[in-house]
Design goal:
Blueprint (H helix, E strand, L loop, with lengths): L2 H12 L3 H14 L1 H14 L7 E5 L5 H9 L4 E6 L2 H13 L5 E5 L11 E7 L8 H11 E12 L8 E2 L5 E2 L12 H10 L4 E7 L2 H20 L3 H24 L8 E7 L1
Parallel strand pairs: 1-2, 1-4, 2-3, 4-5
Antiparallel strand pairs: 5-9, 6-7, 8-9
C-alpha cells in the first residue's frame, strides 16, 4: 500500500492554517498508540533532563513530536532531521509562525548525519524500518549523544508490525510498502544497538492485544478505504466519532500493560 500519498493528502488538508495543524497534532497524539508510548517515556526522561537540553529528532515527519517536546520545556533546543525537503520547509515555516524558534528542521540522511557529543536525547519514531543501513544510523546516534544521553525508539517488531498480509496468489505484502524490513526481532535490535556503542539497552513490546485492536480501528481500516478513494475523507470525521472512545480506552490499556509479545517495540538505550 502506498502510505505516503495518503499521509500527504491528510497533511495538506490540515496545513491550511496553524490552528488546523495544531488540531491535527492533537488528533495524532490521541489516535496513534506509538505517540502514547513515546510521550510517556519522554515525560519520564524530562524529569531528569538538563534545563538546556538539546534534542535530535531523527526522522521528524510531520513534526508532531517536536511540537510536543517544545511544549514540555520552551528552553530545550530541538534539531529535527528528515529526508523530505518539502516537509522540512513546511515544518520550519509552521514553527516560525507559532513562535518556537528553538525548533529547527533540516534535510539530512541519518546514515550520514553525525554531530559528536552534542545531544541529550535522540528520538527516532517509526523510522528504522525505513533505513536499510540501520547499523550505521545506530552508530551515528551513539556518536551524536553526550555521555549519559538517551536514545528513544519506536519501531515495528517482527510479530506483524508492518501489517503483513498473505494474498490469495501467495504474495506477502506489508500494510506499508515503504518499509525495508517487516520489523525487528527484539534480540536483533538490542544486539545492533549495543554493537553501535551503547552501554545499556531496554526493549519492550508495545501494540499488545489492546493496541492491535486500536490500530485496526484507528489506522488500518481508514487508510485502506482512503487508499481506494479519497472521497472517504468526507466520511472520516463521522467514522472517528464512533470509534474514538474505543480507541482511547484501548490505547490506555496498552500503555499501562506489560506485553509478552506485540507488533511494536519501544527501545531505550544509554551511551
Amino acid at each position: 500500500m502506498e502510505y505516503d500519498p495518503i499521509k500527504r493528502t491528510l497533511g495538506n488538508f490540515f496545513n491550511q492554517s496553524p490552528f488546523l495543524r495544531k488540531v491535527f497534532y492533537h488528533l495524532l497524539d490521541w489516535l496513534l498508540l506509538r505517540a502514547w508510548h513515546i510521550q510517556k517515556e519522554a515525560r519520564t526522561w524530562s524529569k531528569k533532563a538538563p534545563e538546556n537540553a538539546f534534542i535530535l529528532d531523527a526522522g521528524s515527519g510531520f513534526g508532531q513530536y517536536d511540537y510536543f517536546l517544545s511544549s514540555l520545556n520552551s528552553k530545550w533546543r530541538i534539531l529535527a532531521i528528515d529526508v523530505k525537503e518539502e516537509q522540512v520547509a513546511d515544518c520550519n515555516s509552521f514553527f516560525k509562525e507559532i513562535g518556537r524558534p528553538q525548533v529547527k528542521f533540516q534535510v539530512g540522511d541519518l546514515t550520514k548525519y553525525k554531530a559528536p557529543d552534542t545531544y541529550d536525547l535522540v528520538l527516532c519514531v517509526d523510522v528504522m524500518e525505513h533505513i536499510l543501513e540501520d547499523r550505521k544510523a545506530f552508530e551515528n546516534y551513539c556518536s551524536s549523544l553526550k555521555k549519559g544521553g538517551m536514545l528513544l525508539i519506536s519501531t515495528p517488531s517482527d510479530q506483524g508490525g508492518s501489517g503483513i498480509e498473505e494474498h490469495a496468489d501467495g504474495e506477502v505484502q506489508g500494510f506499508i510498502d515503504e518499509h525495508v524490513r517487516d520489523g525487528y526481532p527484539i534480540e536483533e535490535i538490542e544486539e545492533k544497538i549495543l554493537t553501535a556503542g551503547f552501554e545499556i539497552v531496554e526493549a519492550k513490546y508495545s501494540y499488545g492485544t489492546p493496541g492491535k485492536i486500536s490500530w485496526k480501528l484507528s489506522m488500518y481500516l481508514p487508510m485502506r478505504v482512503l487508499g481506494v478513494s479519497k472521497l472517504f475523507l468526507i466520511l472520516l470525521p463521522f467514522y472517528y466519532i464512533l470509534t474514538f472512545p474505543f480507541c482511547i480506552a484501548l490505547n490506555y490499556l496498552d500503555v499501562h500493560s506489560n506485553h509478552r509479545t506485540g507488533t511494536g517495540l519501544i527501545v531505550k538505550a544509554w551511551k
